[in-house]
Amino acid sequence: MKLRYLYILVFILLAAIGCEKDSNRSVAATGKGGSTARFTISGMHLYVVDGDELHTFSLQNPAEPEQVNSLQLGWNNSIETIFPWKDKLFIGSTDAMYVISISNPGQPVVEGTASHIRACDPVVADDKYAYVTVRTGNNCSGDINALYVYDVSAGAGSPSRVFGQDMNNPHGLGLHNNYLYVCDGAAGLDVFNVQDGANPRLVTTKKGYTFFDCIPVDNVLICMIEGGMVLYDISTPANPVVLSEIKK
Amino acid sequence: MIKKLIPIICVCCISACTVDPPPPKETEGYVPVYAEKAKPSSVSFQQPQAIENAGKIYVKDKLLYQVENGKGIHVISIADPSKPVREGFIPIAGAQEISILNNSLYTNTYNDLLVLDISSPENITITKYIENAFTLVSTVTPPESGYFECVDPAKGMVIGWTKKKIYSPKCKY
């Protein structure tokens, strides 16, 4: 009798493992881009921001995308970056951060807008907070360089700013296990503890390169720097250790 | 239409309301790059190339991609992140962006969307090309504000901007 139960149990287990494998195979596999990207994939859609618009392409057949939507967001080339998180897109422009709902993936709608003074601003986000850098220089007008945190947990409306700190010339950022990596141009890579997202604490700054953007993948932080890339081991997230450089 | 006109109207207002100093006789500024734009007929996987104008980065399945701004995509294996191996280079004129789903790589050739099947690197194929899918390269104004050489439509289509010494520029934004 007991043996029969055991057989059933083993059978269920095997079936479960089988299902797992099957579902893994059918799940669409996408990679990871940086916070300064203008292309991003969420679910079975490719989202592209150009200067003024958010373009949506269906990837029902990944090899042959079809454009299904265009949403006018800004004007005069103000849109710069796009970052996906669950059923949302966070879009950085020179004067605001847009929170876009993609609950209906083929038909993005603006859910909230946080305006700020004119500057460039990549965004990363999680369920509760959106982390935004604003910087001046080049075609980014304005006169502020800072890291801002917005509370986006409320969903619709205007996210409120809960934190702000001056920086040198911040570009892209990456979020990984309660740590936020901010590429502060020639001033270095700033590592913030964001266990309390409304109160980031700077724990260390890594120097030696001019940092533009970074992507945390598992325990490796891949940074785009002037002239190429540098890879860090972030198995101790508070203390990135250089693994390798790819330059020239 | 109105929205497209707003920036032009604003520029006109600003230039009408402020008294600009005369343009410098010689300055650094952007010059339009003209070209005959055509759908790329094929894309190949070539020998690794030097990173010169490092662009955006993308990671998928132990492969790291870095855009060579305006020229293509570097492909680097980071199976061992302490010893990256340069696998090759995919030349794509005007490339700035990259994203990947399964075996499809999405990038841009100027303002056109290009989709590549990368399931076998030695045989990359173009599966889709959408002309003028977006406006990543402005054909009207350079990427930074300041003086620039005016666009001359007779010279062809603007596919990009390059910085050069310019003389008595008539255009500014």
Q: Could you explain the architecture of this structure?
A:
The complex is a heterodimer of chains A (248) and B (173). With 248 residues, chain A is mainly beta. Chain A has one helix at 2-26, and strands at residues 32-33, 39-42, 45-49, 53-58, 66-72, 79-85, 88-93, 96-101, 109-115, 123-125, 129-134, 146-151, 160-166, 173-176, 179-183, 189-193, 201-206, 211-217, 220-225, 228-233, 241-247. A 4-stranded antiparallel β-sheet of chain A has the order 2-3-4-5, with no helix packed on it. Chain A has a 4-stranded antiparallel β-sheet with strand order 6-7-8-9, with no helix packed on it. In chain A, a hairpin with a 3-residue loop joins strand 10 (123-125) and strand 11. Chain A is globular. Residues 13-26 of chain A have low confidence and may be disordered. Chain B has 1 helix and 12 strands; from the N terminus they run αββββββββββββ. In chain B, strand 7 (104-109) and strand 8 (112-117) form a beta hairpin. Chain B has one helix at 2-17; strands spanning 26-35, 54-60, 63-68, 72-77, 85-91, 98-101, 104-109, 112-117, 125-130, 147-148, 157-167, 171-172. Chain B has 173 residues and is mainly β. The chains are: A mainly beta (248), B mainly beta (173). The interface between A and B is large, with 53 and 51 residues.
